[in-house]
Amino acid sequence: MHANKLIQDFISRFQARKWDSMSAILPIAQFGSDGIIGFIEAVIQEIPNCHTYTDAALSFLPLEDWPQVVRIAVNALLQDKMNQAAQSVIRTQRIGTYIIVHVKGCWRRAYLMS
Question: How many CA atoms lie within 13 A of 14 on its CB side?
Answer without folding.
Answer: 22
